[in-house]
Amino acid sequence: MQKPSGGQRRISRRATVGALIAAAATPAMAEECRFGLPSHERGPRVWLDSDQAELDAAYEQTPYAPCFAQIIKRWASNSDAVRARIGLPRRLSYGPTPIEALDLYPAKRAGAPIFIFIHGGGWLRRSARNYAFPAELFVDAGAHYVVLDFIAIEDAHDLRIIADQVHRAIAWVHANAATFDGDADRIFIGGHSSGGHLCAVALATDWQSFGLASSPVKGGICMSGMYEMKPIRLAHSMSYVNLTDAMEEALSPQRHVDLLCAPMIVSYGTFESPEFQQEARSFAAAARAAGKPVELIEAANYNHFEMGESLANPYGPNGRAALAMMELALR
After folding, report:
1. Cα Rg for the chain, rounded, in angstroms?
2. 86: number of CA atoms within 13 Å, CB side?
């Protein structure tokens, strides 16, 4: 059999690549990458421009990130890999119950700044253990990385209890920073999804009620969060949160931008649901209108879960923003 010439091989490769590109443009291939809620007969609006099906899908997430389970598994496996490289964290208690604890991945130098991460998961039962994946970035850049555990909504039955634990964890880190060679005057916080909501709540706080003369937080990054709780009450997919009028008012950071206590970054991805995108834009706009320092980051072609994962990437939208906020760089 005659062997193909180099030119024939190049033509063959070009033809193959061209065929793949053409196939990707076909309706059949596009069907595999369907994004958003399938076409449906629109019902009455229940929140802004969303009908009930659209609002439910926004918080259920699957229509906008169909492979989200794979990403969450990767967070866990990457967290295992990080621990294998930089070591196990110190487990420290910030409160009296077993769940009121945190994982500390210490910096390699004394007097280092501190980044506190508040995980997401719909305020449900998630573990700090699976959110170690950004730790290596912060430790290598010269910061302590702290990730919180806190009670789940199905145990608390009141979102204010979760917010209180997050507040007390931040206050504990401030009071005890010297015990792990941390700089109590350089505490920064960040959260993703429902953790982004809790991060915003912590930023819009009168810290005197927690025994502090002023805010212990020097900056925060709210990633793909919820900042107005009315649509949470209206979404059938979020009915388990069981918000009351009092909870909705107290825990809607967008209604309390006058209390914002530190410079803030708000980020979202363009492959997130329209509701999550408008939440970020509206919160940032409200903060700006109140004269508060805020930066809005729109990350092109990231979905909700990829935004959380990008915190571990110094060149990703959230990793880059967090390092800049803390005035750090990888060594």
Report:
1. 22
2. 22
Strand pairing report for 45-47 and 50-51: antiparallel
Helical spans, DSSP H, in the chain:
6-24, 27-32, 52-60, 68-86, 135-140, 153-156, 159-176, 194-203, 230-234, 245-250, 274-289, 304-309, 317-325
Phi-psi domain of 228 (left: phi exceeds 0; alpha: psi -120 through 50; beta: other): beta
Q: Centre a 10 Å sphere on the Cβ of residue 8 and count the other Cβ atoms it contains.
A: 11
- The dihedrals phi and psi of 114, each to the nearest 5 degrees, come to -125, 130
- Residues 173-205 have pLDDT tens digits of 999 999 999 999 999 999 999 999 999 999 999
In this prediction, residue 33 has a pLDDT band, given cuts at 50, 70 and 90, of low
pLDDT at residue number 19: 43
For residue 37, what pLDDT is reported? 85
Instruction: Tell me the helix, strand and coil percentages in the chain, rounded to 5.
Output: 50, 20, 35
Domain ranges in the chain are: 51-325
DSSP letter for each residue of 9-35: HHHHHHHHHHHHHHHHTSHHHHHHT--
pLDDT, residue 29, reads: 42
Whether the Cβ atoms of residue 145 and residue 135 lie closer than 8 Å to each other: yes
Question: What kind of architecture, by CATH, is found in domain 51-325?
Answer: 3-Layer(aba) Sandwich (3.40)
d(CA 104, CA 124): 22
Reported pTM: 0.90
Tens-digit pLDDT profile for residues 134-159: 999 999 999 999 999 999 999 999 99
The residue behind tokens 């170690």 is 132
Q: Sign of dihedral through CA atoms 176, 211, 125, 225? A: negative
DSSP characters for 231-247? HHHH-GGGGGG---HHH
